[in-house]
């Protein structure tokens, strides 16, 4: 942890010490605020800093910042600036002025340099986000703090001057989520989704007062309009990307009886039972939650892929609500799940590529295991790769298939960690044939057959025939394939 604190001091704080001193010399008061304080106390990676400057005007702040680098206006009317420091191209710090804003979809914003840090912190949603560090004191103590970190004796809660009027440090220690101000909390329905996100991200629980607020608060804004799906989707992405167990957020919605209101397709899964020999974990909802967590912990190429695969994990068995019989047969649920997945996702995003990708994963999520069980030929794997392209790959489908099998823990809510033999075989096969990420490329192009067929539909038909022969008969030699496709 001391290396973590040393990195915070040297990487984040040291470059801005001259700015802090300059602001103080101009009668400013400088604080580190928001999530960066929380994450510092938790020892979580800090990606950016939010600095709030009091007792100074917007013009003064801009003029001072300009002497250290180019200023970007993130929200000039909101008093938010970002600079790139000349000496190290550092661009992760937002400098803002305290402000007062009205409620509603388009709040009126008034910058108030004299608001005071206590009143400024009261605007925040949760007590763990309503703390500030006095950066002027940190600048004065900087060398002493670095020495303490080098001696493994630095403790931020006591060594930094932390302004904590609403008990954020205690809430962190108790792993508790509490509202700063109950009346202000309900003004923005997005805060409801932030609680959901924080439950999964930090594995904290709301206190009784906050839980009651979330059970009863309106999810419409002050104009009685739904909150924009783009804002909700951003919170869902944070839940997925920053949680070890994103299912905790959805489980909480079920607990407070709001899942059916927010995500009805998922709520419907709670009443669908499954065969105990195949699904000892219980309902389809429980299975889906375990699959979601299984997907979240597996390896992903990037954040976009992780979001897409986790959403596919959420959607993969939605079709069981309409396909499950009294005998627990759910034949065809992969097909009936496709429109339900689209319905679910359209409530979150207009990203057509993402929706198309998830729909294909839902439709084909059973195929990896079936191909292995049926001891299918290479042709079947290659044809499946073609069906998946261009949206998704066999490797991605394999991840969903593995998670589907791991989400069957009848002992507790954690997914199994075993790597199934069917998954290992599937992975080995697609690697062997070089079709992990995309279908096998055709070895003949139009130019190779132009002497045998005029350009146009006939040539396209001949190329399609050539590709079919290529993957069916496992031909890799262009000459052999060309002779094979052109012989009379």
What is the topological layout?
Blueprint: H1 2-13, H2 17-25, E1 29-33, H3 35-42, E2 49-54, H4 58-66, E3 69-75, E4 80-85, E5 93-96, E6 99-101, E7 109-111, H5 117-122, E8 132-134, H6 135-140, H7 142-150, H8 156-159, E9 162-163, H9 168-174, E10 176-177, H10 182-185, H11 190-202, E11 205-206, H12 208-216, H13 229-242, H14 247-255, H15 259-262, H16 264-267, H17 284-297, H18 303-315, H19 320-323, H20 333-346, H21 352-364, H22 367-373, H23 378-388, H24 394-406, H25 421-432, H26 446-449, H27 457-472, H28 478-486
Parallel strand pairs: 2-5, 10-11
Antiparallel strand pairs: 1-2, 1-8, 3-4, 4-5, 6-7, 8-9
Description:
By secondary structure, this protein is an alpha+beta fold. It has four domains: about 1-175, Beta Polymerase, domain 2, CATH 3.30.460; about 180-260, Hydrophobic Seed Protein; about 280-430, Hypothetical protein af1432; about 445-485, no CATH class. Helices cover about 55% and strands about 10% of the residues. The chain has 28 helices and eleven strands. The strands form three sheets. The chain has a seven-stranded mixed sheet. A two-stranded antiparallel ribbon has the order 6-7. Strands 10-11 form a two-stranded parallel sheet. A hairpin with a 7-residue loop joins strand 4 and strand 5. Helix 22 crosses helix 25 (about 420-430). The longest helix is centred in the C-terminal third of the chain and has 16 residues, at about 455-470. It is globular and about 90 Å long.
